[in-house]
Amino acid sequence: MPRAAVDPIRAAATKSLRQAAGRWLKAGREAAGLTQAELAERVGMRYYTFVSQVESGLGRVPIEMQGAWALAVGLDPAHFARTLLAYYEPELNRLLFGDAAQILPDAQRAFGT
Questions:
Q1: Which of 65, 61, 50, 71 is nearest to 25 (CA)?
Q2: CATH architecture under which domain 13-110 falls
Q3: Which of 42, 52, 64, 112 is the right S-S partner for 72, CB 3.0 to 4.6 Å?
Q4: Model's pTM, two decimal places?
Q5: What is the pLDDT of residue 2?
Q6: Distance of alpha carbon 69 from alpha carbon 49, whole angstroms
């Protein structure tokens, strides 16, 4: 089955949400007093550049690493995962939990961003 054409408006919204997630993650790392290299080491990554890519919005925290990442920055893993779900998959978040916009302001307040 052929893939649908990329919707430029949706692509821009996805990029914007990834960048917002990256800012939230960076604020969490900084609030925990960690460098990118220290966070990478704590979550078992070989290269700190992956943290940089995630914080810039170019990558995502893999699901299997979300618990370790949350603990490394001192957050409840469930809250951390749900917040990332709101950023990374807003429609799924809405289907599961209602209005996705409800969690994002809370996520931003978690680190004063």
A1: 61
A2: Orthogonal Bundle (1.10)
A3: 42
A4: 0.82
A5: 75
A6: 15
Question: Which tokens sit at 107?
Answer: 């996520």
Domain extents in the chain: 13-110
What six digits make up the tokens of 37? Answer: 């290299």
Is the Cβ–Cβ distance between 26 and 55 less than 8 Å? yes
- Residue 33: which pLDDT band, with cuts at 50, 70 and 90? very high
DSSP 58: S
Give the pLDDT mean for 3-18.
86
Within 32-76, residue ranges assigned H as helices are: 36-42, 49-55, 66-72
Residue 110 has pLDDT above 60, yes or no: no
Residue 103 above 80 pLDDT? no
8 Å CB contact between 84 and 23: no
Q: Which residue has the tokens 């990256």?
A: 22
